[in-house]
Fold this sequence. Notes:
The protein is mainly β. The chain contains three helices and 21 strands. Residues 1-8 and 14-19 have low confidence and may be disordered.
Amino acid sequence: xxxxxxxxxxxxxxxxxxxxxxxxxxxxxxxxxxxxxxxxxxxxxxxxxxxxxxxxxxxxxxxxxxxxxxxxxxxxxxxxxxxxxxxxxxxxxxxxxxxxxxxxxxxxxxxxxxxxxxxxxxxxxxxxxxxxxxxxxxxxxxxxxxxxxxxxxxxxxxxxxxxxxxxxxxxxxxxxxxxxxxxxxxxxxxxxxxxxxxxxxxxxxxxxxxxxxxxxxxxxxxxxxxxxxxxxxxxxxxxxxxxxxxxxxxxxxxxxxxxxxxxxxxxxxxxxxxxxxxxxxxxxxxxxxxxxxxxxxxxxxxxxxxxxxxxxxxxxxxxxxxxxxxxxxxxxxxxxxxxxxxxxxxxxxxxxxxxxxxxxxxxxxxxxxxxxxxxxxxxxxxxxxxxxxxxxxxxxxxxxxxxxxxxxxxxxxxxxxxxxxxx
Length: 423
């Protein structure tokens, strides 16, 4: 009676790390990847044909492929190529179950002060099977209670192509906004059109599998503002900015949760007279810690810190804001505004039966300062809120989460409020 192939593979690999060397990898065979190209997965693996089929390297390869976020399941099974000759090596069978990559999402936003927006977001993950991402968004809103706008139409399209040429990639986007705007503190209304375009070159410096380390980027951004109508203020004009930044990524994906950390630093610099009608400087920081708790699988504590600073520019509107879904959930949208801000949050999550549905308890604190609008809320110290709700992660789509709950402001605010958001 012969030995089953899976048992034979287990016997071969069980000797790794002992006196007997692991058998060599003869080939790597993929299945289940109807869309994803094999080279996308191969570059995330810790071994290649000719390397020893070390169990630790196989485990790291599996996690590396899983970290792409494109699959619901990843399994790597070594199969002996010749049961009668252990030295003949093994073939690695990589089985994946792909997620769905095209996601149209209607966007409906409304508030108690009659502000409302209807839109559609289209996200194409793993475009062309190359792990590229296309994100398009259109929205039409009415804002009768907003200080700075009466109505707004906005469209944006962005494309991200990492590892396009070896370790080099490209990312860029175009955005257009048309709004019926107001002068803060006055009844004057006028038509405003804004454009923004940016292009970045990225360089992936991560050389471990699974990947951890730095990704750097540099590029250019162009923005332009035009106005029309009786009583309109002078136009801001245009600016061309240099973009630089870096991302340190050591995050591991586990389908319904993450572990590890992720930190980003980005800066924009425009100089008046250098292709710009005005100059400005902007810095944004973000750090996230994803901690696994010992209570069980997908029991997590997420710690989030963000900050931003802006100087110069037209000085007409605030750049940063806090409040609403995602930041200071106990406060209304744009409750705090300013040219600088800081934000801290702690999120506790645990499954409520199925892993895709998790309880979320969140505590947040933040401030905004340096407002250029005397009618905006700014300063006044730190504001904080606590909330409880649920977070849903649908594993058959890429990076698709929804959350909903109730949050209570701990300082000022307008009382307990419902929050919802996602994607």
